[in-house]
Amino acid sequence: MFNDAQSANDAQSFLNYKTDISKRVKSKEIDILLVVNMFLTGFDSKTLNTIYVDKNLKYHGLIQAYSRTNRILDRNKSQGNIVTFRNLKQNTDDAVRLFSNLSAKETITIAPYSQQINFFEEAYANLMAITPTPNDVNSLVTEEDELKFAKAFRSIIRLKNILDSFTEFTFDDVSMTAQEFQNFSTKYQDLKDKIKFNNDKQKVSILNEIDFEIELLHRDEINVTYIMQLLTQLKDAKPKDQAIQKKRILDLIAGEAELRSKRELIEQFIENNLPEISDDSTIEEEFKTYWQAETIKALEALSTTESLKKEKVEIIINNFLFTGRMATEDEIIETLEKQPSVLQRESISNRITEKIKDFIKTFINGVE
């Protein structure tokens, strides 16, 4: 698979083998790793999220093995999953009791499923007291009311993220429906966008202080590839059903954090390009061609508007996609055709950085 050969004939070769596996796990080249003792301790990879245990672990060995999965990566990974094929409840309790304060137990293990359902129901009741329906969000008058809604729904998002880690979770187990969650998600993101694009810079908004944690609304299964399947269905739909199908697609996009920034472009494709396609099997290829052209156009527009050296902007984008690190202020300034004054550097750098991030979010992230 990797066109690589390793040996365990001597200590150095074995170390090279272990190092190679470690690097491949951390770079997500290996999805499943079967281990006995090695990598259960002394190994850290934040991307690991699930460990399947079929071994009688105890005390420090148990804690260290469980800890392979509990590194918080970002808001999409707030805890690790541990699936045991042996009854390790007592061993886990003993290990936690030995190595931590009893009051700190909740930081190691989360509450059971039934209790998480209760937490969710309490949060849902709180949300209903503020906005009984998604449309009620539009009627909120003051920023204080909008803040209450944002915090209430953010709690819902956090709790759903935890419930999603339980394989048995479905919306049938809670009072909120999946569609209701989707509709509230759209209103929640509308509120965030309202703050982001607020033109009244002189007014200090209390909503600026809240972290909306939009990352938690991202779902990998709803991506551009999935939208392509829906576009095929739209193309095949009867004329009387096309308006309903189109609205369904646009509503789905509006409710997805990963796709929201792409809505206008996808809608443009539906309006202008889709009717001209005669063969359904070419929809995805036609969309890729359209997306590539729009991406080039947007990059040209960004470079022209901000007087940037396009080739250097491309390098920054590629480096970000490869390393996950955004360019420094100096690297951003180097993309400018004309160097700004010292007093202008920071504001110009911040503005261009945000525009590059928006470009990546719209044209690259989630396009598979």
Keyword list:
single chain; 368 residues; mainly alpha; Methane Monooxygenase Hydroxylase, Chain G, domain 1; two-stranded parallel sheet; 13 helices; 54% helix
The N- to C-terminal Cα distance equals 22 Å
**What is the string of helix and strand elements?**
HEHEHHHHHHHHHHH
Q: Count of helices? A: 13
- Runs in which pLDDT lies below 50 for 5 or more consecutive residues are none
Strand content: under 5%
Shape: globular
> What is the total tally of β strands?
2
Strand order of the largest sheet: 1-2
**Largest sheet descriptor:** 2 strands, parallel
Would you give an account of this structure?
The chain is mainly α. It has helices spanning 11-26, 59-66, 89-99, 113-130, 143-163, 178-196, 224-236, 239-254, 263-273, 283-305, 310-323, 329-333, 342-363, and strands spanning 50-53, 81-84. Among the domains are: 32-107, no CATH class; 113-217, Methane Monooxygenase Hydroxylase, Chain G, domain 1 (Up-down Bundle), CATH 1.20.58.910; 306-368, no CATH class. It is built from 13 helices and two strands. Helix 2 packs across helix 3 (89-99), helix 7 runs antiparallel to helix 8 and helix 10 runs antiparallel to helix 13. The chain is globular and about 60 Å long. 15% of the residues are buried. The model has no long low-confidence stretch (mean pLDDT 80).
